[in-house]
User: Fold this.
Amino acid sequence: MSYTIDTIKKLEAKWQEFWRKSKTFAADSSTKKPKYYVLEMFPYPSGKIHMGHVRNYTIADVIARFKKMQGFEVLHPIGYDAFGQPAENAAIKHKTDPAKWTHRCIDEMHQEFEKMGFSYDWDREIATCDKEYYKWNQWIFLKMIEKGLAYKKASAVNWCPSCETTLANEEVIQGECWRCKTEVKQKDLNQWYLKITDYSERLLEDLETLKHWPERVKTMQKNWIGKSYGVEIYFKVEKTKEALPVFTTRQDTIFGATYVVLAPEHPLVEKLVAGTKEEKAVAQFVEKISHVSKTDRVAGGLKKEGIFTGLYAINPVNNERMPIWIADYVLMEYGTGAIMAVPTHDQRDFLFAKEHKLPMRIVIKDPKRPDISADDLKEAFEDEGALINSAQFNGIGNVESLEEIADWMEAEEIGKKVIHWRLRDWLISRQRYWGTPIPVIYCDACGVVPVPEKELPVELPEDIKITGEGGSPLAKCKEFVNVKCPKCGKAAQRETDTMATFFDSSWYYLRYISAHNDKEIFDTKDAATWMPVDQYIGGIEHAILHLLYSRFFTKFLNDLKLVKFEEPFTRLLTQGMVLKDGEVMSKSKGNTVDPDAVIGKYGADALRLFILFAAPPEDQLEWNDNAIEGSWRFLSRVWNLAETKYQKDVKDDAPAESDKDLEHDRNVAIKKFTDDIEKGFKFNTAISSIMVLLNSVDKHLKGKQGAKAVSQTAINKTIETVIMLLAPMTPHLCEELWKMLGKKDKTISDVAWPACDESMLVLDEVQIVVQINGKLRAKFQMPVDLSEEELKEVILVDDKVKEYIADKPIKRFIIIPNKIVNIVV
RNA sequence: GGGCAAGUGGUGGAAUGGCAUACACGAAGGACUUAAAAUCCUUUGGCUGAAAGGCUAUGAGGGUUCGACUCCCUCCUUGCCCACCA
Assistant:
């Protein structure tokens, strides 16, 4: 057989069918072997896979197959994150319904995965849009209501006018909708929230336990959770009974606070100015600001608008009168929506104070300019220094003073220490059709009534018209909406919002454990066997969203005593993006490469190999049409070597003199390949180690560079090793070659991973590099482990070395065993 | 503005503080061929030299060290994330 694309296509199809039929990659929960759970972030079923999928899932597949050959019982499942808005849009466009469209896409996607040769346990395939799955979404939701973690609240929410739905804070990226990039508006709505904030502390603390997560992801989560220690200080408002709470992390600057600012939306604003002469102007200002979108308010940058209320607050530490202002740079969402302004030590306050000619007082001494006056400041001094103008705290370093001042404020009842979190509760209501119905009924008599557990699932009606004309389609479906109250039996209405799809993906890794269990969410015993996920692989774009939500769900399920662990994913690998011409591949840019076309031209194995070889998994990967030719060529070299140089049933084959050299190279390759994968999934260098081995075989076969002939036994052994090492990466080819060699294993994935013979790694002779004053001057071929005297005997008599040393005295003679000698003269 | 990465040939990239540029792509030359493709062989950081060799080079500058792509400091550039967060 010759190595042509037709041969490859046939054999790839053959092995894919074989794996499917013989369930080669079914995971056995009753196994005695050590377990290994490899998981990739499941795809949204768009129908077509793109290079990002190929990369993500090839990485996972290599790990799964590698671990299986190493003797682990591997769980490697796949499913589809199948609810969501694109299905609704497609349904409108193609005049079909979202369910049909989605299921067709899932089928297509499934085919593509098989064509890539991914080693999934197909019996565990799930789709979140199936009622067998989303029933358990609803079940979790009911449990959350029970525990007080799901609640309904009227509030200003993020609203995407284009998607016509609400968004969670995590879904708003720089003021824009994460999906369609439309500017997000604020809207007052009554919506369902999950109390993720109850878990702030645990979500933050347990990041420490995630030793094998990228620092970057942990930092992003830490910043998102945003824990800050500070003080809530109460400022009495002059001539009223109001006490205005202000949150600050900079209580060290309290003696420098010269005015107070409220957010325009602050609830006290209206009350405070009522009946004063400023009332009208303030109302106008608030009205004006309310029309400016949040993005514009931020984009306005340094220009800060504000208005004086005519009122004064009393600074509790020195009884000074501080004017109360209202300004757009103070946000209602953070802290108490009110700040104490310290213009000398906060740049924003500084700019505002300059603009509106408000007083300033320095309270931290700048070590570089100790005598500067507030009037001469060009900008706020935000670095560290000793306190001044701060009564009994003068002279203390401002950082050290934080705790002391906070304690003093508590003792004096001026304020209390508080911890503030940036993390907000998770808004999960979506005014969309294609999602999990929120299992709640509204009854005039009984109020909010959760659907009883035994009535789950609340099915999503499928014979519904998606018009795209706005409004929730479910609300228009009378058969769905009108029900009897489960409590009193009177007429009642169902909730017509559906859940955010991030709810679905927050626990799917547990459903794979018992994908078909209709009695419970998952089998807790099997979950204890398989979980947590040993290796999770996906894109960095989920660093906050999905990964934070999944951690939250796991902790909740832990509280329900359904799982014993606190964290779902032990190791996380975030793979880099696939680029073309320096830009991210995307449909809108028109620079995509269709994996299917590449498979058609070179086969799945060559595509897999290229994507692994082109860059380390975490880096960006530049697509290169030429380089995939290189992968194809390399595989054809392997094929030809196995086909023409391997001899079955070799007898009376005398060992050759050079066998030791090839054996050395073979063992080096095994060691390097195995280490590279185990110590950091460095597939690119792992592959290069096989290439090096292949070059070495070539050298011996052709007698290049003085290499001598080796025995057939040694050649055979090397060819077998190459095929075994490559098997996780290019499985089709390796299965075929393994059979070609006459091996009887059912599949190559059953073959034990090749062991490295450490004794073969040691050479008799090594090259010693001689440096003189750190510069490379000579090289010697010498026996290993020579003593200093023996080395000197050879090196110091060498003419060249002598020339460089001349008559200078040798100061030091540094030896790096079997590598380098550095002579310092 | 803050945080985190990263900066090495024409390109992708490799180097527990110890021979910088492994491996591959591309390019050039050659063999085979009527020719092309495929395959095989050779060369390939820069400067210099007939050659042996010499000098030089990992964003810039400094430092530590016998020795620095690697560690430390300052700066520059790029990418990503966060951001009037009090």
Notes: Chain A has a mean pLDDT of 89. The longest helix of chain A spans residues 625-645.
